[in-house]
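Cross-posted from the bioinformatics board.
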Amino acid sequence: DLPLTLIAGPCQLESLDHALMIAEQMAAACAEAGARFIFKASYDKANRTSLNGKRGLGLDEGLRVLSEVRSRIGCPVLTDIHGAEQCAAVAQAVDVLQIPAFLCRQTDLLLAAGETGAAINVKKGQFLAPWDMPNVVAKLESTGNKRLLLTERGTSFGYNTLVADMRALPQMAKTGYPVVMDATHSVQQPGGQGGSSGGQREFAPVMARAAVSLGIASVFIETHEAPDTAPSDGPNMIPLDQMPALVRSLMAFDALAKADPLRL
Amino acid sequence: DLPLTLIAGPCQLESLDHALMIAEQMAAACAEAGARFIFKASYDKANRTSLNGKRGLGLDEGLRVLSEVRSRIGCPVLTDIHGAEQCAAVAQAVDVLQIPAFLCRQTDLLLAAGETGAAINVKKGQFLAPWDMPNVVAKLESTGNKRLLLTERGTSFGYNTLVADMRALPQMAKTGYPVVMDATHSVQQPGGQGGSSGGQREFAPVMARAAVSLGIASVFIETHEAPDTAPSDGPNMIPLDQMPALVRSLMAFDALAKADPLRL
Amino acid sequence: DLPLTLIAGPCQLESLDHALMIAEQMAAACAEAGARFIFKASYDKANRTSLNGKRGLGLDEGLRVLSEVRSRIGCPVLTDIHGAEQCAAVAQAVDVLQIPAFLCRQTDLLLAAGETGAAINVKKGQFLAPWDMPNVVAKLESTGNKRLLLTERGTSFGYNTLVADMRALPQMAKTGYPVVMDATHSVQQPGGQGGSSGGQREFAPVMARAAVSLGIASVFIETHEAPDTAPSDGPNMIPLDQMPALVRSLMAFDALAKADPLRL
Amino acid sequence: DLPLTLIAGPCQLESLDHALMIAEQMAAACAEAGARFIFKASYDKANRTSLNGKRGLGLDEGLRVLSEVRSRIGCPVLTDIHGAEQCAAVAQAVDVLQIPAFLCRQTDLLLAAGETGAAINVKKGQFLAPWDMPNVVAKLESTGNKRLLLTERGTSFGYNTLVADMRALPQMAKTGYPVVMDATHSVQQPGGQGGSSGGQREFAPVMARAAVSLGIASVFIETHEAPDTAPSDGPNMIPLDQMPALVRSLMAFDALAKADPLRL
């Protein structure tokens, strides 16, 4: 029942300066509001809708930037991995390895990630029921690693649409692990713009607030100073200058929720 | 931005004594917590899964009981209607006419209900997108009636399952009308028990809290002193003795949400 | 294992001449191809997306036209009903009463329809699983009426979209009653054009052929000489001049399917 | 408009003898019915529901068996790959590389597979709309490889359920590439048995026939001599002794469909 943790940052790493700028502003916003903060950014967007989508800085340069953010800002950092062979190197540079939703059942990736001993955040696949996550957890736990987080990021609902089922949060919490709401990906419209995904940015704070009111451990939010020109996920990222007010607001709901836990 | 209204009561009318007992306890719980209260119960379950399901007291006896509850408890009462020909009589006895979700596109029923001048609560069909509700609203408004409420009660999600999309609440609020979250029907499992519907009662407070945190006008909850032996919807009704604590809890989230409105 | 029956006609009745023209052409196309034919048209579109949508000729004039079609063309006629009070009168004029999908769980309507003794075609609700249809069947059978048909017309799949699950056809056939595929409504996009429904007319023959290959009893197809200017359901109706070729094609698949029944 | 190709075999490789036995019987059944045949089996089930599920023979032994089947039975062989680093080796031993549905957007895997020059069968993700497949195709085509097949294997429909949308077949055919219906995975119930997936084996022939009637290039069917004791996907595999009759039946529908192509 610790205060809410914000996992936040740009969808993809663009440069060291850019990462530091966002991490610094987010760290300040979280500190002011009493939230804990983990910086998030991807070194490789490995499953873009289209081949033309920018993929990011790549592994080597990406890890350099993430290390730098960690040491200069003094916050934990999280990034996502895409193959078993990347896990060991990435675990040197970051605090939390993230399993992408599409890959949440790839056994070798889960085992390799777990074996690093780093904390692991698994995103529930868009195709997975919340009550199927214990199978994913068991794969990770088989490595002896019990530093796990489970994230809801929306479930397939017809074509090009996701829906976030609030029941998934307490369902996944039954595993005993901290639960994260991914407020920006759950309002994505996958493939909704033909060659890229659309999104409904205006509903990300709706998802965040509804989920925080249920007493979850963490909210995941992608943010950018200029989402409309960001290299990926612009339609669903929250403008950076709106984040301080959003974090303050979420912390008020978090305090109330933690003082009045749901009993299921 | 008035305080939250609880629309609550048993799924179906069983007897005058039973209705008075529930209305009295709910009215007291709401008064104590600072919530407004509307008593809800059905005189006819007109679309039971199976022919063997009990349908209730019927129109004449049902309206007598509802009138009695209104005058003795001093609270507004709401009931659902199933045909255009019932509207005028029902509007004599109750304050709010409710359009069932399956019937939310039946033009004649909407027009007859609207023409009574009573307040109308329309449940969004399980097959309807939230942005399609303005068409429903326009049918009602064509009668000159602008005392409308719009309710989310879950959307079809595969077979025998509903999902409550939190985005539907602010979407429907764009109409300018008060929005209601039906916390107990949205966790129904339609037809999920073969000859009757199943439900996940434990998640009803989850839905209620998430929705209230978004600043909605009202929560709809079916309740019963012994849900497991109730004549209908037992699997998703909340036990009556848990309601006072739930209402108190919701009012705390309501106060916070109303003080910090979402800006979409 | 009789040859395929085509249930076909315009979405709504427009005039006697119009109904006779379509019925005559469809009867000829079916006779030539060896198919049986039932003329279908609605006297009242009682659940239009928007209040501005045309509703049709109304009960009295509609029944006159349907009777006339029946006697002049010599084919059975089918129409849909919207309230229990309409059933007796409609059953005088037509051979098959149709229960609309939204109303497939309205007990009183089912009972009143069953009691007429007319054949009843029930459309499975967009919100209903195929294995829930036996409950609907039992309501009808309770009247002693066993002249039933069960129709698949698509199931809710996200917002503004339906999907036709081919498994529903053999599932519903387990009841022992003839199964109908509604090829044009299953490609509807409900509410998909704001104030009216969209549709994907080009996929209606896909649905029809896939379903007929499974050995079903009947295909339901709405058709019009100029779908783009039709008063309702234009986006999914098949142009009348394409029907003869389509019927011939379906009959070839029907013959093969009936000679080689699926064994489940 | 070549005759139908059967892609068939056991879910996972169990031994050389087992693979040869199935390949031999399937090759004979296909030859007798006039169908072309590609043997399918997996060397690694890399995304089992649970860690306890058997994964198969592994890469080295698996490729040895697949090569042996190819040379002894004289049929092309297909297997699925799970990482970019596997593609070159696998392409030495088999004719068709298959991209698993969960991995259909992993850019590096698609590029590495395409670069082998082998034929590539991509399964459409359970989370992907059919009209999003051109983005997947473009990734593969960027390698100069135009020997592609596109497979429908079902789309997420609520929790633990898939639905096969027949519209997806002609939609994907618009790319100009051959379209495959995966008749056994589309009736899977993912995670539906807690620690493993369930399935509705009885509906696999339904899916196959409906799809073949639309004139597709190929049907994918997993088969086993004793599905109920198979190491994976038993609930949805078709018993081997039922395959000859099924192939004969499908070929009759294939001939009719190819003689009467759908015009969209």
